[in-house]
Amino acid sequence: MSKSRVLFAVVLLAAAVAAQADVTVTPAVVSDYDLRGITQTAQKPALQVGVDYADPSGLYLGAWGSNLDFGPGDPQAEVDLKGGFTFGDAKDGFAYDVGAIYYTYVNKSDYNYPEIYAGLKRGWFSAKLSYSWDYNGTRESSYYLSTTGTVPLPQAFSLVGHIGYSAGNYWDRFYGGGYYDWSVGVTKKLGNFTVGLSFIDGSDLPSGRSKVFSTESRVVASLATTLPWSAD
After folding, report:
1. How many Å from the N-terminal Cα to the C-terminal Cα in the chain?
2. What is the residue-averaged pLDDT of the chain?
3. Exposure class string for 5-15: b at 16+ Cβ within 10 A, else e
4. Rounded to an integer, what is the distance from CA 94 to the centroid of its chain?
5. Nearest-CA neighbor of 14 among 197, 201, 228?
6. Is the residue at 141 inside a domain?
7. Total domains, the chain
8. Under 8 Å between Cβ of 151 and 158
9. pLDDT band, very low/low/confident/very high, at 5 (cuts 50, 70, 90)
10. 42 Rama sector, left if φ>0, alpha if ψ -120 to 50, beta otherwise
11. Which one of 151, 154, 176, 222 is most buried, counting C-beta atoms within 10 A?
12. 4 falls in which pLDDT band (50, 70, 90)?
């Protein structure tokens, strides 16, 4: 199945559920699909769509899709499924998030892998630990520890900083050890849309295929919205 057909199917699913209670749809366009400091689209643009259901109890379910560029051949699209539970209040104390996500790669199922995670948030600060025992379908373990700060600024701007560290048997085996990634950027609310601009950098990992899976520093722009739009 081509990436255009996969993304069209995701958009149709998003349109079908957008009007349902407790369901939100988040379409976005980014100049590069960055995953933990590594480009997933060879530093080319991506169309991404997320569909999320949130229950008042704290239970949530979701699906997310994006086009890819891993070089010639498949996969050309990714569709992820997730579920978890949130509890607590980040305004008055700590909020917590535990869950699992399954990454799937269309026409390349041997890349598929599961990941579990736990996170916390308080005010503008959040931290998260993710772990997979079969990263990228290699039967090797990997974990990712990250912290993110989102500081509100005047005129509907926000300053966003992020630091992450990847390590585990997968990174030891294929790259000789773990690596860091970091980013700093700004977002701006414009009505129902959010625009963003980030500078991303970190440890240099060998790629060997030009911009495919590159970790070189770059600037990434984004435009996103969440449906249904507020009536305000």
Report:
1. 40
2. 91
3. ebbeebbeebe
4. 22
5. 228
6. yes
7. 1
8. yes
9. low
10. left
11. 222
12. very low
Is residue 210 classed as helix, strand or coil in its secondary structure? coil
19 contacts: CB under 8 Å, gap ≥ 6: 228
Q: What is the largest CA-CA distance in the chain?
A: 53
Instruction: Quickly tell me which residue has 């995670």 as its tokens.
Output: 117
Mention every residue, 6+ apart, whose C-beta is less than 8 A from residue 39: 32, 33, 211, 212, 213, 214, 215, 218
Q: Which domain holds residue 58?
A: 3-225
Residue 232: the pLDDT is 60
Tokens of 27: 């379409």
Cβ neighbours around 126 below 10 Å, total: 18
| Amino acid in position 119 | G
98 vs 219: CA distance, rounded Å: 31
In a domain, 230, yes or no: no
CATH of the domain at 125: 2.40.160.40
pLDDT of 23 strictly over 50: yes
What is the DSSP-derived secondary structure letter of residue 227?
Answer: B
Distances (CA, A) of 214 to 70, 71, 80, 91: 10, 12, 22, 38
